[in-house]
């Protein structure tokens, strides 16, 4: 009785050894093929090892590496995951293979994006996501690429996924907030800028963006408050001075405040024609004609092809009773407009 049981045990052990030995031979053969860069044979050998023993984690790991070489990344991911499950002793090797592949794809995507090859960049980044889905950087870059490809829904999805993975990462917050602002998702954008300001209270750009949101939501007094706060931190930002001037001029009807804001904007960015035009319109409405004429003469001298400058100059001269000069200026406007 005991002998019978012992014989059965020996038989089971022998069968186990036979299976293991066969799988080991396939793995050995696959390694040899890999060393010779015969990827097709190596793949066949490792598949044979897995057919013999589906839980052969080492074979899964090497098969994943082969699929990396043949750029069959979907199959690579499948066997990487199985290697993680069945080959704990190879955890470091598996992790390094995953990281190396992710890095190569990420760098390739970045280079393609720099060359404006956004389709190629998208393919690289989305493949990198399959390899290592816990890394937020590829999600952020995929969102950027979709944005450049003018697919707002996809851009939002990937930026949002990056935010879910790394909600405290400042670059992720800023990218997602800016996209939400551009898409008109004002409440979400505002909450994201608010989170940025919790970490960086002196972030003038985030404060300015909250001002932009308040302006879009027609909360103009709040917008002014945000812009003024931002300007206390960054007083040399001509864009913020311009935005402040627009609100004072168009929404709050505070002409003097608008003139001051547009003037500061021009002092900082003297080549901003749009700011110059807005300032001159405000000066005309405030009946500060001499100031407007002086600035308009400078404008039409520096930018003779800006037709609206000739038009404003003509109107201002007419209000001053200088009809002949006004008519000459208006003819200049008509000639300019015909060229357009």
Please describe what this structure looks like.
By secondary structure, this protein is mainly α. It has a domain at 291-340. 82% of the residues lie in helices and 0% in strands. The protein has helices at residues 2-35, 39-52, 57-69, 73-86, 91-114, 118-131, 136-148, 152-165, 170-182, 186-199, 204-216, 220-233, 238-251, 255-268, 273-285, 289-302, 307-319, 323-339.
Structural key phrases:
single chain, mainly alpha, 18 helices, disordered N terminus
- Element order, helices and strands? HHHHHHHHHHHHHHHHHH
**Largest sheet properties:** none
Residues in helices, as a percent range:
over 70%
Q: Calculate the mean pLDDT score and round it.
A: 92
Structure in a nutshell:
The protein is mainly α. Helices cover 82% and strands 0% of the residues. The protein has a domain at 291-340.
